[in-house]
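Many introductory courses stop at the sequence. We go one step further.
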Amino acid sequence: MRKSLILGLLMTVISMPAVKAETLTVVIDNVNSSEGYILLRVLAGQQEFKGEVEATTSIKQRAIGGNVSFTLSSLPAGEYGVQILHDSNGNGKLDSNLVGMPIEPWAFSNNATGNFGPPKWDDVKFTLSGIVTQNIRFNH
């Protein structure tokens, strides 16, 4: 009986489909200083993009002037977006001037930009399947 149970569990595990991990590399081409932090958020859907739910992945790294890259190799295939901020003063948020214009560098996947606000999810999203690289430039 015990051997049958163990064999049955083993067969169940073997027959379960494996979740394939995809690889996303984000390269930021123009970090202009080593002050503060680079904040990167990987977003899986419009709710995460709007900030209604927590991002799939968030990374905070000390800023390094020049080119900076992040590689994530454990994401399942699907639709994603990336949001990046160079938090120059380290306060954890995007600072803006009196009229609401950002004064710290920011960027989204596909180098999407918005008019009088952030870009739309449809401009930011991309399909992650296999190995994907997003080359992104900060908006200053």
